[in-house]
Amino acid sequence: MLEFSEGSYIQRKTLFVEVILPLAISRNYTYRVPFEMNSLVETGKRVVVQFGKSKLYTAIIASITEHAPEKYEAKYIIEVLDDKPVVTERQLKFWHWIAEYYMCNEGEVMNAALPSALKLASETKVMLNRDYEFDRTQLNDKEFLITEALDIQPELTISDIAKLLGQKTVMPILKSLFEKNVINISEEVSERYKPRRKTYLTLNPEYNNPESRKELFTILEKRAPKQADAVLAYMKLSRQQKAVTKNELVEESGAGDSSIKSLIEKEVFIAEERTVSRLGYDENDDIANFTLSNAQQIALQEVQQQLTEKDVVLLHGVTSSGKTQIYIRLIEDAMATGKQVLYLLPEIALTTHIIERLRVYFGTHIGVYHSRFNDNERVEVWRKVLDNEYQVVLGARSSVFLPFHDLGLIIVDEEHETSYKQYDPAPRYNARDAAIYLANLHKGKVLLGSATPAFETYFNARTKKFGLVELAERYGGVQLPLIEVVSIGKETKDKTMQSHFTSVLMLDMEQAIANKEQVILFQNRRGYAPILMCRICAYTPKCINCDVSLTYHKHSGKLHCHYCGYKEDTPSVCPACGSTHLEYKGFGTEKVEDELSMLMPDARLARMDLDTTRSRNSLQTILNNLEEKKIDVLVGTQMVAKGLDFADVTVIGIINADSLLKYPDYRANERSFQMLAQVSGRAGRRGKQGKVVIQTYDPNHRVIKQVIANDYADLYFTEMEERKSFHYPPFYRIINLDVKHKNPEILYNQAEYLANELRKHFGERVIGPEPPLINRIRNYYIKSIMLKFERDTISIVKAKAVIREVITQFQTTKLAKGSIVQPDVDPY
């Protein structure tokens, strides 16, 4: 392209950028770069673009080219938001792989990967920042006009402001107002991340000698006793810690802000504002030492050896065998070579529990990342990983998306856990499998750890694809817990049951509490009662949006749907027959806690499930109370099964094992064994042997016997024979297609058409369509089509390409109107 300038022709490049938009569109979009922004664009930076008629979005630059798109005229990018890339080249490759492997779009991956504070869009609200005093005389005419309008109307949308100013693009003006602290903007437009600042105080060196300090106290005690108290409090705090904040001094001294401000003005204190971490630890901790047992030392050496030969190694160690200590040694090895480490954990509960322990070893070198952090905290971790300030990151599944530079080791603890799998929304990825590809991108290594490995992982280890190291004894020589199986049927017949508790469990709980020990009770269902039923006509209230019965929650007094969040008041009269004979069937954690409080009124009870851990710090509070022995009995769902390590928990009660064993899923036996073994592993972890009481109607069930014998190998070989016969993983790969529509009759035709089209390519590998266990969620009816592919004789890449083509062809037909098709690769 030639430009005329002052009598001569100047040739300059016209650049185009292919960008990833945070939308579920099948292709990336290309935009033109204004010449003045040519030097600013760079792969991985964010740009503001218009998509559609009027909406603005933040997009990530995926590539830069000089070729214009052939099929459409490229619009100009509006603004480049970053001085340096916020997404690395490796991340973009990783996003592309996730999108290809899990059959979704890169925009959906971007949405999952980026903290929302780094994503911007236009249809949002703008309001004045009422917490900040600003000088309106310092604003330009357009900025002043916006603030005047916001005085009249507290909230304005971007389109309102565009109309007010009579111009299309208002982002630069809003950005300027935001940087001046004049306005607040919701996450879609604003650069929401702001560093956290604290005011630190130091005593003026003038008062370092005793004489000058004495003179200062004499003056202050007479004229300003509160200020004297503040100086004394400072002296006390400065002896206990390295740095003193203004807030700490106010709290310790009882002096008000005004007293501290006066001391700063008198230059008694020197105030310094510093950027500090929001993550709760600013000071370095000393690295503590521990000694590995002989078995751990051998396992560590084997892992180190196998990691030189294999990219992935499985550490199969019984519960409480000290796997975490081996992880620490491996992390230290990686850090010594300057590499970064990602330590993945399946649950936020486990993450918050273990971080305090790992901080002892790694201090501020370790970052934490999970969904309970607010946006500012997530962006802070993101930037620190990007700037190489964190060598170790501990987090839940979304941590795989962080911008690592040189990832040497990924540890996937409790690798069998289903929590590593993202189910909704897309991308429906498994963090364990994604971690293996991510490590490969960085030429790093992966260590998978579990007492009860997923069968696919164990299969890969036994067939030499992965390395395998066994750790068969508990740390410190502690014995595995004694397991006693109690028949609910027999105790019910003998009338020795108390509510949902057998006499054996009640006695063991009472003895544990008398010995000042702790108890964990496991019931894998939350709420008070799963079903409310009319005794006369058998009516059961159901969700208006989903095909499930409503669960009664006593704390709210309402019936809840656990799928869409719908709630309704509990009826006192049956809506069907008018009977007043309504009764609760089944029980959840809330009912277990409630009834136990009546049976053991002096016991200190707590409950850990989704309902009690919704607020920001509630989970950590429960875990701290358990560790500090403020709780005698903890009742919980599967949260309590995952890696918790408390010295005084000696009794575990599994209230009803049958709810796990009877689940209609080919993995039911594997999952039941894992859950029962993991819950059992919480007992007797230090010194004293613990006890597990399993309550069941079927005490002779094969899986229960295998749990008692801790015989994972017997379970594995038995189940693998069935898996091979019935074409299930690890011998076959599975891809599920969920077809959804609000009209069940239209859905039937759509699903049948799609299944028949797939059969033309894959024949008997296509199973269904069939309704899933719950066939209506959020007003959408669902039909599932399952495809099974031989692992060794068919190219899964080619199979996915065909499936994509069939789905695309289906979506171009009139029949597809109103439908949603959701692919799920490796759904289990």
From TrEMBL:
State the source organism's domain of life: Bacteria
The UniProt annotation places Zn(2+) 1 binding at C534, C537, C574, C577
**Entry EC number(s):** 5.6.2.4
All residue ranges annotated as the Helicase ATP-binding domain in the record: 304-471
Q: How is the cofactor bound?
A: Binds 2 zinc ions per subunit.
Family the entry assigns? Belongs to the helicase family. PriA subfamily.
Please give the name of this protein.
Replication restart protein PriA
The reaction(s) this protein catalyses:
ATP + H2O = ADP + phosphate + H(+); Couples ATP hydrolysis with the unwinding of duplex DNA by translocating in the 3'-5' direction
